């Protein structure tokens, strides 16, 4: 039996009906309310029925996608645009610096060390470790002297990092692997013989089902059995607590922060390591029990720099005496600005800096900017000019730990590959320190930031990347969003965005509530009981694109991953008529049971919990799986999931896919693409290209974009799921 599917501007193509899953009669009664769950059986990936259904879904996915137009051209263009590669920020230690660089043709970034004379050597190459490409470099931290390197590797996308330490001089491994290091923090002590690190308790020491939790802070002496590490902090904390550690450059001050899951607040302690042995630091509270995010750093001048959103949702920078670190001793150095969010700072001082300078990074409506201040009194010295032509993003700030007049920062926008720029405090000038290592011919695109009104009148912004500066005719369009965990979507190089626009389409990225683009209040306006604001903002973005003439609803696709997968799941169930197609990747969709799987229990502060009657009503109000209705003409939908995903279980997409296939009357396909040996985060370039080919060709087919048509470039596209693979946040 076949069904005729006719995407806009394409000839019909006969594809088989989707293989149906058996509907069950499971109904949970929660606080007296019946909650049906007809596809509960699909939660078990190893059940024979689930395996058979998944295999049939895979065949059906390929029967629809493998024939789509332009795939070869798209793949070739993706290869070209990914060949630009990337270069990370330098990390200076002991006269040498370290950086992560992905050269053309590399599947992953490689960690290099560059000596004082400019010679460089490879230190860690994931492909040399695993030619299959499934091993990723998750983190790396050089010692203060630069002679040792701690680094973490994981395999198959599971993000279960293992720690290794190597000698930088000859690349020999000193120790490792040390397991249970997922989401660790590492802080070296001077001399490189010991470090503080965060590690989970062994599985046998925790209740069943809680193996991903129960972290502690330890002092580890290099080369010793990690079983003998001394626990210095964390006993008695909630099982879902994360810890961060830091040691000042002079080795005197230890900071320890604790986070309850992904809640937008933390507790913070500071210890003077000169007051006793490092195994028994006396930690004094800086902020405990306050509803704020705070970080501290002891500068070379001996002052405690406090970066906080306490009483300042867009952020402020304070100074204090580290011996009296509490809020009562803070003095504002850089006050909160009313329409810009503080994101980072660098202290440029010492003998090589004729004038001490505090370089501060902000985002103003998601666009990066810099300002220079006098660190003594916070007086504004100037606003350095950033590369012009298109709004961009600043990716971190780096400086010499010994002091100096230079700072390095990443710069990215929609029109060019990312680069590393350098700021010189002596002149106030900015120059290019490193460009992308490869080259590609890039399309000429136009970037606009537009404003629109959401349902409650709130002003929201989005970036529109298009072939023309103003709408000339309705075009196939993709609307991308995230809207959660305080994560901001700033301008960034994206081969997928460029390719879509190059082929004649429009790509829009909405800065929804729930993100961090306008500070912590913006985040909280889209979390917990306010989550519907995020979806309203997305619907209004779609309506704005149509009203402006950029597109029409039968040419508009929605795209999102992770928390953004929840977003587009809500979009397609709440407003199915607005979208012709949806790309929904690694999504949360069953919001009644999300806490039971993966790392879901860590996100209850963001979403709420079904264990509380009022919060269950929040979740049921939008949970996409529970809002699929028979007889509705739903858009074409592509779910993409990854078997190694230890954050968001693929069961969400399986259940939602089955529900939509049963319910939809549109004749448009609902497909499930499952991939093995990758997870929620990093992946090889080859795998990214193939995922992007499948995703963008699917969206093109159902919005009327023809990669082989007149709007295409001679070669044709890329970045992950169109805009990004891993937005983070929901760790």
Set down the secondary structure blueprint.
Blueprint (H helix, E strand, L loop, with lengths): L1 E4 L7 E4 L10 E4 L2 E4 L11 H18 L5 H12 L3 E2 L3 E3 L2 E7 L7 E5 L5 E5 L1 H4 L5 E8 L5 E8 L6 E6 L5 E6 L7 E3 L5 E7 L14 E7 L8 E4 L7 E7 L5 E8 L6 E6 L11 E4 L6 E5 L5 E5 L7 E5 L10 E4 L6 E8 L8 E8 L2 E7 L6 E3 L9 E8 L6 E8 L5 E6 L4 E6 L11 E8 L5 E8 L10 E4 L14 H8 L3 E6 L8 H5 L7 H16 L8 E6 L1 H12 L6 E5 L18 H4 L5 H10 L13 E7 L8 H13 L6 E6 L9 H19 L28
Parallel strand pairs: 36-37, 36-38, 38-39, 39-40, 40-41
Antiparallel strand pairs: 1-2, 3-4, 5-7, 6-7, 7-8, 8-9, 10-11, 11-12, 12-13, 14-15, 15-16, 16-17, 18-19, 19-20, 20-21, 22-23, 23-24, 24-25, 26-27, 27-28, 28-29, 30-31, 31-32, 32-33, 34-35, 35-37
Helix pairs in contact: 2-11, 6-7
């Amino acid at each position: 039996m076949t069904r005729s599917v006719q995407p806009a501007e394409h000839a019909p193509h006969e594809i088989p009906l989707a293989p149906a899953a058996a509907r069950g009669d499971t109904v949970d009664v929660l606080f007296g309310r019946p909650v049906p769950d007809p596809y509960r059986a699909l939660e078990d990936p190893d059940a024979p029925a689930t395996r058979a259904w998944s295999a049939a879904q895979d065949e059906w996915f390929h029967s629809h996608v493998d024939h789509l137009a332009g795939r070869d051209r798209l793949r070739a263009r993706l290869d070209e645009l990914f060949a630009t590669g990337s270069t990370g920020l330098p990390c200076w230690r002991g006269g040498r610096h370290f950086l992560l660089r992905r050269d053309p043709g590399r599947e992953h970034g490689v960690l290099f060390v560059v000596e004082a004379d400019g010679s460089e050597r490879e230190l860690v190459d994931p492909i040399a470790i695993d030619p299959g490409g499934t091993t990723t470099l998750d983190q790396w931290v050089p010692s203060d002297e630069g002679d040792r390197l701690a680094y973490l590797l994981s395999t198959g996308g599971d993000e279960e990092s293992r720690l290794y330490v190597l000698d930088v001089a000859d690349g020999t491994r000193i120790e490792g692997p040390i397991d249970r290091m997922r989401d660790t923090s590492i802080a070296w002590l001077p001399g490189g013989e010991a470090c503080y690190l965060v590690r989970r308790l062994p599985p046998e020491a925790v209740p069943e089902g809680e193996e991903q939790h129960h972290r502690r802070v330890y002092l580890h002496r290099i080369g010793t059995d990690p079983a003998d590490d001394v626990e210095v902090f964390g006993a008695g904390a909630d099982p879902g607590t994360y810890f961060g550690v830091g040691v000042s450059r002079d080795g005197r001050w230890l900071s320890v922060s604790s986070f309850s899951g992904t809640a937008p607040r933390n507790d913070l302690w500071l210890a003077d390591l000169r007051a006793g042995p490092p195994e028994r630091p006396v930690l004094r509270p800086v902020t405990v029990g306050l509803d704020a995010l705070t970080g501290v750093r002891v500068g070379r001048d001996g002052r405690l720099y406090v970066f906080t959103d306490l009483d300042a949702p867009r952020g402020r920078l304070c100074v204090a005496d580290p011996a009296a670190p509490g809020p009562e001793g803070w003095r504002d150095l850089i006050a909160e600005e009313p329409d810009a969010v503080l994101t980072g700072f660098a202290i440029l001082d010492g003998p090589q800096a004729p004038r001490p300078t505090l370089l501060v990074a902000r985002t103003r409506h998601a666009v990066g900017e810099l300002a220079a201040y006098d660190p003594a009194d916070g007086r504004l010295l100037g606003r350095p000019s950033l590369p012009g032509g298109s709004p961009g993003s600043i990716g971190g700030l780096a400086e010499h730990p010994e002091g100096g007049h230079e700072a390095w920062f990443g710069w990215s926008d929609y029109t060019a590959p990312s680069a590393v720029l350098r700021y010189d405090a002596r002149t106030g000038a900015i120059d290019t320190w490193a460009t992308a290592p490869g080259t590609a011919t890039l399309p000429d695109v136009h970037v606009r930031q537009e404003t629109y009104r959401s349902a409650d009148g709130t002003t929201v912004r989005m970036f529109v990347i298009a072939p023309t500066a103003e709408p000339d005719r309705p075009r196939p369009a993709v609307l991308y969003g995230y809207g959660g965990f305080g994560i901001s979507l700033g301008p960034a190089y994206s081969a997928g965005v460029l390719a879509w626009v190059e082929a004649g389409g429009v790509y829009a990225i909405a800065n929804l509530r729930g993100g961090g683009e306008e500070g912590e209040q913006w985040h909280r306006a889209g979390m917990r009981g306010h989550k519907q604001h995020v979806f309203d903002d997305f619907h209004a973005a779609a309506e704005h694109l149509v009203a402006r003439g950029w597109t029409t609803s039968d040419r508009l696709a929605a795209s999102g991953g992770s928390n953004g997968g929840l977003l587009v799941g809500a979009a397609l169930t709440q407003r199915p008529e607005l979208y012709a197609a949806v790309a929904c990747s690694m999504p949360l969709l069953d919001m009644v049971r999300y806490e039971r799987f993966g790392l879901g229990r860590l996100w209850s502060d963001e979403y709420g919990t079904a264990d509380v009657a009022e919060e269950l009503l929040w979740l049921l109000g939008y949970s996409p799986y529970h809002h699929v209705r028979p007889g509705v003409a739903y858009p074409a939908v592509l779910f993409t999931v990854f078997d190694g995903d230890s954050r968001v279980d693929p069961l969400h997409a399986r259940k939602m896919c089955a529900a939509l296939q049963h319910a939809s009357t549109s004749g448009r396909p609902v497909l499930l693409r499952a991939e093995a040996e990758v997870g929620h985060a990093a992946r090889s370039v080859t795998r990214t290209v193939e995922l992007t080919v499948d995703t963008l060709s699917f969206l093109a087919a159902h919005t009327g974009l023809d990669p082989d048509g007149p709007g295409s470039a001679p070669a044709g596209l890329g970045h992950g799921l169109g805009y990004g693979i891993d937005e983070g946040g929901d760790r």
